[in-house]
């Protein structure tokens, strides 16, 4: 069974930029999974630091209103990996999931860490590159011209163990031909 992970789509991240395109693509994938009765699991990150935009019980830590109504399952975490010290593995086992699709924020942190952790646990992993977003940019890493999503997608793709697709490729590969 396939499951969709929607990682850290929270006000404290989404409000840092213009993520309309990413949110629309994530919503399209969510709708596809729901239409095919495949689980959609939201991951919600909490920080303990008082000044963090993701501090527990703050407006910033809430799932963004554009996708909040789709949250069937919510798993709380406090590290970049959605698996570390969370209930995610137990939920996936109970649901009989063997293939995870990754969407959400931030591409180079929680999405990438979760994709690698999922592979390490034996899941087939599909990373939908343009259905992830990040608040970081080339200046964050002092690397002029760096396209973070493309870089992460390329590295994961080169691993030959994590499938990396853009939304259009996802539709072609999974929505139309295989129709789950």
Automatic annotation (TrEMBL):
<dbReference type="GO" id="GO:0016787">
    <property type="term" value="F:hydrolase activity"/>
</dbReference>
<dbReference type="InterPro" id="IPR036380">
    <property type="entry name" value="Isochorismatase-like_sf"/>
</dbReference>
<feature type="domain" description="Isochorismatase-like">
    <location>
        <begin position="3"/>
        <end position="143"/>
    </location>
</feature>
<dbReference type="Pfam" id="PF00857">
    <property type="entry name" value="Isochorismatase"/>
</dbReference>
<dbReference type="InterPro" id="IPR050272">
    <property type="entry name" value="Isochorismatase-like_hydrls"/>
</dbReference>
<keyword id="KW-0378">Hydrolase</keyword>
<protein>
    <submittedName>
        <fullName>Isochorismatase family protein</fullName>
    </submittedName>
</protein>
<dbReference type="InterPro" id="IPR000868">
    <property type="entry name" value="Isochorismatase-like_dom"/>
</dbReference>
<comment type="similarity">
    <text>Belongs to the isochorismatase family.</text>
</comment>
């Amino acid at each position: 069974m396939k499951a969709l992970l929607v990682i850290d789509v929270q006000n404290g991240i989404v409000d840092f930029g213009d993520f309309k395109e990413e949110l629309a693509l994530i919503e399209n994938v969510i709708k596809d999974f729901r239409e095919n009765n495949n689980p959609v699991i939201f991951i919600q990150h909490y920080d303990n630091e008082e000044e963090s935009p993701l501090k527990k019980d703050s407006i910033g830590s809430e799932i963004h209103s554009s996708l909040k109504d789709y949250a069937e399952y919510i798993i709380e975490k406090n590290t970049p990996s959605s698996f570390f010290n969370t209930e995610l593995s137990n939920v996936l086992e109970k649901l009989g999931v063997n293939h995870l699709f990754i969407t959400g924020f931030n591409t180079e942190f929680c999405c990438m860490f979760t994709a690698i952790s999922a592979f390490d646990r034996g899941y087939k992993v599909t990373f939908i590159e343009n259905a992830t977003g990040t608040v970081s940019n080339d200046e964050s890493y002092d690397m002029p011209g760096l396209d973070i999503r493309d870089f992460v997608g390329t590295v994961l793709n080169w691993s030959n163990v994590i499938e990396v697709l853009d939304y259009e490729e996802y539709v072609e590969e999974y929505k139309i031909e295989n129709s789950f």
